[in-house]
Specification:
By secondary structure, this protein is mainly alpha-helical. The protein has 2 domains: 206 residues, no CATH class; 221 residues, Alpha-Beta Barrel (TIM Barrel), CATH 3.20.20.70. Helices cover 58% and strands 4% of the residues. Helix 4 runs antiparallel to helix 5 and helix 13 runs parallel beside helix 14.
């Protein structure tokens, strides 16, 4: 009974959290939809978006890309456009563009992982819209499209959309007209009354199914190990890990580095690390130094990682990463940790963490200090790519593997490749899907990491 109550509690909690995350998008989407219904005359939409040729679809694509909506808002707006006379092709083009040609997402992709990924995002969205337009012309007749439009117009039998008498009024007059806003409010309320049950059921299903899929999805994909730093050809793995960075809530306060970063909330990140342990996922995490934390807060972060590992035995490695100032960030003028500060933190990490947990530092961010870091207790360099840059720090090139091997040899160690999963987790039951055991054996087994 206690497990049932716990499952119900987690399901409702997840449903609430997801609803809390996207409520603004629902409100925004229905609000814009209500304005379209009330303020935009049908003949204007029909004249601009009624066709399915290149011109109307291009206009709809441009409008959708400019709106940069989430899926909830995009669906609501696209439905209103379709009801008002837009063709199915242009309505869907608007919807696809507003969720797949999002300029903010492209910018993030460009900054974090490279322009190639941003280009692929945009090209993929355009290809998707083009395929949709071709398939609609091939399989959806004008008669079927008109039936769909009539169905959309009469889907809400218990409420009618109001169209305000705004023809001839300027936008300023519309924005200041109580009658126009009354019609918007009526349409907004009607849409909510029509869809609130479906939306609620959707959140509840996602809330209850999501946690159950966490384990089954890993089984379905054939792996439970993550944090991929060196992928052997033909070995399909999932790559995952999470930098804890720091457990101090102080860094989320006003004027601190994480004030505007809700995803950096320590409790949320600790929860993910804990759930990874409960799912028996070999995990990578780490701390970020030089962001305004105190030495005590660094130690507290390392102790939190150690405690999670002792509870679940799933931490493979801990990254000690130094902050790098960049001209495009608020802390552009902040001082960076020096080599001694990094070495001191690596040494403390080695003392605090259990011996089976590796300590890692990015070799490209401190190219002159490799021997010092090895002496401090580092025993893993993470991923080194001869083909791709460090997308987070593209200004810092990777060291040559041969040169790094010579440095390790000078310190009395051998540089060896390893799998994303450490040997200890290959041998422990429950951490590696049986289907992958044979694949790992076929590639010579899991190489023992430096010790």
């Amino acid at each position: 009974m206690s497990e049932v109550i716990e499952t119900l509690g987690k399901g409702f909690e997840q449903a609430f959290l997801m609803a809390y995350e996207v409520w603004w998008a629902l409100v925004l989407g229905f609000a814009i939809s209500a304005m379209v219904q009330a303020w935009v005359p049908r003949h204007r939409i029909e004249s601009a978006l009624s066709g399915s040729g290149f011109g109307p679809v291009s206009k709809a694509t441009g409008l959708g890309a400019a709106s940069s909506s989430c899926s909830y808002a995009a669906i609501a707006i696209a439905r209103s456009l379709f009801e008002k006379g837009a063709s199915a092709a242009t309505a869907l083009a608007f919807q696809f563009a507003s969720t797949n040609l999002v300029w903010e997402l492209g910018l993030v992709l460009w900054v974090l992982i490279g322009w190639q990924f941003a280009l692929a995002e945009y090209v993929g969205g355009i290809v998707l819209i083009a395929l949709m337009s071709v398939l609609l012309r091939r399989f959806v007749s004008p008669r079927l499209e008109e039936r769909a439009r009539e169905h959309a117009r009469h889907a809400a039998a218990d409420h009618q959309h109001r169209a305000a008498g705004v023809e001839g009024l300027s936008w300023r007059e519309r924005l200041t007209s109580p009658s126009a806003w009354s019609d918007v409010a009526h349409n907004f309320r009607g849409d909510w009354e029509m869809l609130w049950k479906e939306i609620t059921v959707g959140f509840l299903l996602a809330g209850f199914i999501g946690p159950q899929l966490a384990r089954s999805t890993a089984d379905l994909l054939g792996t439970r190990f993550v944090a991929s730093f060196l992928c052997i050809p033909l070995l399909a793995v999932m790559s995952m890990g999470l930098m804890l960075e720091n457990v101090s809530p102080r860094l989320r306060g006003r004027g601190e580095v994480h004030q505007w970063a809700p995803d950096k909330e320590p409790a949320v990140r600790l929860r993910m690390l804990r759930e990874a342990g409960e799912l028996r996922i070999p995990f990578t995490t780490g701390i970020l130094i030089g962001i305004g934390e105190t030495p005590e807060e660094r130690v507290d972060t390392l102790l939190a990682i150690r405690d999670l590992h002792r509870a679940h035995g799933h931490i493979q490695e801990v990254i000690v990463q130094n902050f790098r100032a960049k001209p495009t960030i608020p802390r552009a003028d902040a001082p960076e940790p020096d080599a001694l500060d990094m070495a001191r933190t690596i040494a403390v990490a080695r003392l605090v963490l259990d011996s089976e947990v590796s300590v890692q530092a990015p070799p490209n961010l401190s190219p002159e200090d490799h021997l010092l870091f090895i002496a401090a207790g580092l025993n893993d360099w993470g991923g080194i790519s001869p083909l791709t840059p460090d997308y987070v720090n593209p200004e810092a090139p990777w060291p040559h593997v041969a040169a790094l091997a010579e440095t390790c040899a000078a310190a009395g160690f051998a540089l060896r490749p390893r799998l994303p999963i450490y040997p200890a987790f290959v041998e422990q039951p429950g951490f590696l899907a049986p289907e992958l055991g044979a694949r790992i054996a076929a590639h010579g087994g899991a190489e023992v990491h430096p010790s």
